[in-house]
Structures are given as structure tokens and as C-alpha cells.
């Protein structure tokens, strides 16, 4: 659906040349939700704007839905953009228009007749769950509702691709979840390809099928979300993965327990996919002569299955503990001793 | 009829005031201001759009056109109005064909007020969130669609409040236009009131100008509030 080859974008600033996007190769398949994560300044905003030519590439090619975006005439580019919806962090609604008029805006641009516009707008209002709010002005809506209008507007012309530029970054956690659910819903219902950029791993975990990690204009790591969670290679990726797998302040909490009674070794077990359902702890207690103390744990759902980490304290004979470690590894659960040995 | 009623009531208070003349002068002031305002609006919007669109980082970024437009806007905005009228006498003769009557003041009024309004239009357009323009582009909007469906409607409250300020400035400009025999309240106040020491005429003319200004401001504020959905 989308393929980027050797894509480069440089900006000339007062302090010299800045390469925001540095020789990026990327393929995004039809119907997938693809996430790009990175800290601010990583170039992800520029990258997503290159997809619909809001930024023109310095070199390289962007192909979206079979169209080489850089080679289109102005008129062709406008038509191509009508097939690529985009939503924004700050919604970018027209405050002078009502919800209905905002959603009708892209239809007006395309030249859809009035009666048809009306019909389509009503469909979209229901799709995004804004029934009854059609006559309101954006200033009368909450952030979540505004983003729903943004989504309805982006979907008006039945696009093939939806670009999400930090679409949930200005929303509170609960609203973020409801917007993410809406995106998954749309992805399933309409088979829409979604590309989103974010700095929150939570968003990636919740809805993305594949993820790319961006740093200094380059994609440093990419793959299916679970794989990246399971084996993060880069330091950056590890930091992002930690955001969702470890409950907050895990380290501080656990440090207090180090050396306490019944906590000889502290192990971190990481479950990926189906592993999370195995009765591993039960087996350990039954098979080995050790005491097991569950300290902290968290399981998260991703689009490709569950992912979780569990911190346990194990007290027992050194050899016995060694056996426990081997046993856990045999079960394909990754384990790390974070205290004791 | 109404003028005779007024003169009966106020004849003692304002002995020198000829209410029929006052009425004519008020009409001339309103007439000049109104016609000038319409043209100022058209030219001001046009010039303001040119200034905004050709500025750095905008849709039609063009240093040359921006530079030339900004130069003329600044020049005509800086010339004191009284001097502008005199400078424009030959031009007015060609355009209007006469130097007498309210119409003769129009070219100077418009040329004086349009650049003033153009700057306010430019400021109003700059206030629009760049993200909204970006969103419109992402939807495949043409530049014409962006101008007429996004820029002007989104800036409308500011355009109207700017027009209110301009309208009030125009009313005071018309007073100065009396110098070239354009008529109106200012002319009356100056010739009949000041030069012939009939203070009551100056006073009444001033009050009428004030009332006009208040009404213009009131209407402008009402429309601005009605349009502003932020």
C-alpha cells in the first residue's frame, strides 16, 4: 500500500543543514496498522508529512496506493490526497463550521453534490459515535469528540490510507483508549491501512500490528509488535518497551525488597504470546524445593497476543534455584536475574 | 418635516444651527463613509490576501510581490490624510471629473483607508492556525478553496472588527475631506462653526459624528460576536 525508498528530507536552518529523514526504506501493507515511534525531533512528523507530500522529499520516492506521489501534477496530487485521510494532534477543525459542516468539508473539496454530502455526513457521524452533535461547533466539544470529528472528516472521501499525526497525544488516557478503539474498529470494518506516529508505546501496544522505531531520522528497528517487544535490540527500543511492560516505579519498589526474608533471588520473567497462559509458577512450586514469592506483574494485550512481565522472589538452595532458571528457559519464557547472583 | 420640528425645539439652544443643512451634511458624511467603506473592504481584502499569501512560508510565497505590495501599503498608510487629499487632486479630477461634492473625496478616502484595512486583514489571516491550512491541504483543497472556504471564513470575526475600526477612521477622514469641498459634517463644523464662530454648529456636528461612531461600533461588535464561534 505504501512504499518508501531511499527517502531523504533535509531542512536548511540558520544553524546549518538538518536531515530530518535520512534514507528511509519502508513498506506498509494493505490493511495493517503501522506505528512509528520515536521521541520528539526523531523526524517522525516529517516522515508522515512526506507520505501525502505536505513536505516535498529532498530525494527518494514515496508510493502510496500505486501512485508515485512525487511525480504527480498539482491536480493529480490533490486527487491523490483525497484518498489519504489525515488526523492531527490538535484536531485542526474549522471553528467557523459546525460538526456536520466540518465533516462535509472534504466532500465539498471533491465536489460531491449536496444531497449526497448530507447522506454521507450522517453515516460518518454515526460511525464515529457523534449522533446528535452534528449542529455543535468544535468549541462546544471535548477533546475526544473533536478527534472523532477529525476522524469522520478524514474518512469522508473513503480513503485507502489514514495518517495519524500524534492523534491521541493531546487527550487524557481514557479518551485515548476510546479513540484507539475507534481506530481499530475502522481498520477492521473498512480494511483501511493506518499509519500512526506517536511517542507513546502504549498506543503501539494497543493497536499496531507492526512498529518502526525512529531515531535521528533513521528507522533503527522494525517488525511485528510482539517480536519487537520480545527482543528489542536497540537501547531506544528497550526504553520504549519498558514504558508498557513494567509497571511504573518497578525498580524503586523492588529495591526495597532486595534482601528481605524469603526473597533470595529476584527474577524477571517475560511472557510473550500464548506463554502468558501457562501455569508456570504452579509447576515451579510443585517441582522444586523453593519458596516463590510474587512481587509484581503486568500483562498487556497487543494486537498479536498478550505480553507480560512478572517479578518473583525465589528463596532456596543455590542449585535448586539454578534448576528453576533452566526449567523456566525450557518453557521458552525469557528470564533475567535482577537481584542475587 | 422632521427638520422643522427639530428647529422648533432647539431653536433657542442652538440659534445658529440650520437643521436642514445639518441633515444634508449628515447624509453626505454617511454617504461618503459608506461608499468608501465598500471599496475599502474590497481593496483591503484583496491587498491583505496578497500580503498574507505572498509572505514567507505561505501558499504563494513571493518576495518581489510581497515587497512591492508592502511598500505601497506602508507609503499610503503613512501619508497624513490631509496631505494625501491634496496630493490626489489631479488623480481625482481624472477619475471623478470634478473636485466638488462628496464623490470627489472618495478616491482619497479609499486610497487612505484600504492600506490601513489591508494590514488588519493580513493580521487577521495570520492569526489562523497553520494546522487548519495544513489539514485543508491534506484533504486535497486547491488554493482557491483554501482562500474562500478556510482563510476568509475563519478570519471573519477579525475581518469584521477590523472593518469596524476602519469605518470609524473613515468617518473622521470625511471630516478632513471637507477641505477640498467634499461637504459633510466636518466641512460644516469647520466652515460654519469654526470660521464663523458659531460654536453651537460645531457642537451639534460633533455630537452627530459621535453618535455615528457609537452606532458603527455597536453594529460591528454585534456582528463580530455573532460570527465568533470560538
TrEMBL record, chain A:
**Signal sequence bounds:** none
Q: Does the keyword Cell inner membrane apply?
A: no
Does the keyword section mention Protein biosynthesis?
Answer: no
Location of the ABC transporter domain:
2-241
Query: Which molecular function terms from Gene Ontology are attached?
Result: ATP binding; ATP hydrolysis activity
Q: Which InterPro entries match?
A: AAA+_ATPase (IPR003593), ABC_transporter-like_ATP-bd (IPR003439), ABC_transporter-like_CS (IPR017871), ACT-like_dom_sf (IPR045865), MetN_ABC (IPR041701), MetN_ABC_transporter-like (IPR050086), NIL_domain (IPR018449), P-loop_NTPase (IPR027417)
> CDD domains in the record, alphabetically?
ABC_MetN_methionine_transporter
Q: Which GO terms describe its cellular component?
A: plasma membrane
Protein name per its UniProtKB record = D-methionine transport system ATP-binding protein
Family per record:
Belongs to the ABC transporter superfamily.
User: What keyword terms does UniProt attach to this protein?
Assistant: Amino-acid transport, ATP-binding, Cell membrane, Membrane, Nucleotide-binding, Translocase, Transport
Q: Please give the Pfam families that the UniProt record associates with this protein.
A: ABC_tran (PF00005), NIL (PF09383)
Listed under GO biological process in this entry are: amino acid transport
From TrEMBL, chain B:
User: Cross-referenced CDD domains, in alphabetical order?
Assistant: TM_PBP2
**Is 4Fe-4S given among the entry's keywords?**
no
Task: Give membrane topology per the record.
Answer: Multi-pass membrane protein
Could you name the domain of life of the organism this protein comes from?
A: Bacteria
Record-level GO cellular component terms: plasma membrane
The record, for InterPro entries, names: AA_ABC_Transporter_Permease, MetI-like, MetI-like_sf
Output the Pfam families linked to this UniProt entry: BPD_transp_1
Which residue ranges traverse the bilayer?
31-53, 65-89, 95-118, 158-181, 201-223
**Record key words, sorted:** Cell membrane, Membrane, Transmembrane, Transmembrane helix, Transport
Q: Could you confirm whether the keyword Cell membrane appears in this record?
A: yes
> Mind listing the GO biological process terms from this record?
D-methionine transmembrane transport
Gene3D superfamilies per the record? Answer: MetI-like
All copies of the ABC transmembrane type-1 domain together span 26-220
Describe the family membership recorded for this protein in Swiss-Prot or TrEMBL. Belongs to the binding-protein-dependent transport system permease family. CysTW subfamily.
Name the record gives this protein: D-methionine transport system permease protein
